[in-house]
Structure formats: C-alpha cells, structure tokens
Amino acid sequence: MQGKVALVTGAGTGIGRGVALALAARGVHVAINYHSSEEGARTTLEQVQAQGVRGLLVRADVSVAKQVRDMVDEVLQTFGRLDILVNNSAAQLNLGLADYDEAGYDRVMGVNLRGYFLCTQAAIAPMKRQGGGRIVYISSVHGKRPTDFDVVYAITKGGIKMLARESAIELGKYGITVNVIEPGAVHVGEKSGKPRPIVPAQAVSNESRRRGLRKFPLGRVGTPADIGHIVCFLADDASEFITGAAIRADGGSMLL
Question: Is 105 in the active site?
Fold first, then answer.
C-alpha cells in the first residue's frame, strides 16, 4: 500500500485515529477528516506525519453533501488521487425510543447513514478513473444484534450493512470493493490508538481483565489499532476478491 492515499472520516479520535495510524504505518498518505474535534485531529496529523508519510486535515460535516464534495476535491487537489475511503464518522446519543426528537433522529441518521452514502458517492468518480479502489465502512455489532441503549444508532448500523452490499454489487465492475467492519466494545482511551497487534495481558488492569473475561472470550475489549489492522487488510491488494463482506471484530463477545 506504499504511496497510496486514504481518506478517513472521524479521524480526530478513537477508532478513526487508530485506522489513520495503522494506514500511515504501512506507507499510506492520510487525509484526516474531522468536524468538531480539531485538537484531536491535529494530534492525529502529527502522529501520522511521524510515520514518514503526508497528512492532510479536512474539516467537513459528512451529513452535508457540499461539504463532502469539497472535502474529496481537497484530497484530490493535494494528493492527486484517492485509493482508500474509510467511513468511520458516527453520532450516538444513547436515547430511548420515546426520548428522541426529530432533530436528534436526523442528526444520527445524517452522520451515520447519509454521511456514508454521500462519502461513497463522492469517491466513485476518482476511483473509477484510477481503475479501482477500496471502501471500508466501520459499523458495529449492533447492526447484527438489537441494543437497549440507542434505537436510532442501531438502525443506522443495520442500514450500513445493506448500503455496503448494494454498493459492492454496483461498484465491483470498476474494481472498487466495499466491505464492513463490525466492532464490539472498543476502548478509545488516549493510548489505545497506538498501532500494535494485540494488547499485552500485563497492560490491562485486574478489574478490566475480570470484566473482560466475563464478557469476551479473548479476555479484553478491542482497541482502535485492532480495527486499524483489519482496515489495512481490506485496503490491501491481497483482499481484492473480498467485497460486500462484514467482519465482526468483537473479541468473541457475540458468541456468549
């Protein structure tokens, strides 16, 4: 993937930062999208550039079509191409069914579902010109399993899977693959964005270990780096025969 260009939405913190750093570690130039977390995005940029690749900050609300088009145009003007799109931006209000108002509903649906749709649309033309590309959607295990903490969030995650499947069918003839990652619980603390293959057992507190063993067969929750490594696999040429697929990354928690 050396020298390729990726756009990662919602890369100022958490999973998005972990994805950006994992790609940068493999020689990918990274455009870092953010909306409100400018300070976090600048930290991500510094860490990306420390890997010896180019980085770019692009502010945009992914639920607004013009801002998405302008964002992709800026990436193309800076790097000349777009090889990898990682749709990661998410809004989660943690409200019950009766507690949502229209504004809250529209915001979560706008970021989590319309944002993925708009970013995918904007990436099609440059990827077609290049003869292919990789699109990865960050979803959630709640696209598979109902949740009792945010009904609208769960709706969007279910919709993301069908958007990916339909997009995979339509875009396959252009050499563009579209796949989904469904994380379970992911620790997004300050240090969790560091690229690493696994969290050493000694790095997990006794209490976290006890809780992890009860809920996760692997004995821990995920890290942004765990998700980043899977993104890198799906973005690599070695995965060109995989499209429309969903990879669950939850430490085995849905088995319990």
Answer: no
